[in-house]
Amino acid sequence: MRILRVLAGRELRDGLRNRWVLAVTLLLAALALALAFVGSAPVGQVGATPLEVVVVSLASLSILLLPLIALLLSFDAIVGESERGTLLLLLAGPVLRWQVVLGKFLGQIAILVVATVLGYGTAAVAVAARSGTPDAEAAGAFATLIGSSVLLGAAFVALGLLVSVLVRERQTAAGAALGLWLVFAVIYDLALLGLLVADAGRHMTPGLLEALLLVNPADTFRLLNLTGFAGVQALSGMAGLAGEVSPSIPVMVSVLLAWTALPLIGATLVFARREP
Known about the structure:
Elements: H1 2-17, H2 20-38, H3 43-46, H4 50-74, H5 79-84, H6 86-91, H7 97-131, H8 136-166, H9 170-199, H10 206-215, H11 217-226, H12 230-236, H13 239-244, H14 249-273
Helix pairs in contact: 1-7, 2-4, 2-7, 4-7, 4-8, 4-9, 4-11, 4-12, 7-8, 7-14, 8-9, 8-11, 8-14, 11-14
């Protein structure tokens, strides 16, 4: 455990030194505040609270932004050290390879936790100062957003680490990371929408649609945040979908955890056999 703490702390300090933590926190805070103050117009139309408006806006933003940030944090974690020659020095010490992978993962998750809690928390504080203390349902929706944002980031950090141990050049890792982001955040949903339009309800059952949505961690995140609370459902326009596709919260959390664990295990196994 001590070695993992040291490695995770080293990764976090590198993030601080490279201004990663500050940059990500400021970016998330700025966008969250903009959405908090600009996005309150629909509140009176659907009966949602201001904080629920923020949840819907931030959930939609997070699907695009958090995977990209997570991949940028992790894509060169191993291959970058290999190119700089510091990986050999690291492995020369009393450190096991799985500890290197897990230590980097934990350090990068710490960066995401700090940035997400401070960045999104700023919006919650601003909304509370402007509109008063939110009710229990709105607070629960926002807490779910924070927790699931960390899980979504963790899944893509793990995917980035897997890319980083599979390739030999940093440029290749960057291209693969960008490709993963495009597939999960953009292309998959466009392809699924095209499939739904082409099928016209002939073969696509609710169970099959639910399975296809859960295959993608970004869509799992969307379902978890936009269908779990009545006010958020109404505001996001997901009430109709929630009536047909309604996986339980434990199932959706388990999917996000699986998307974290499987790539992380894969990265550990590949790195164990890789030449430094």
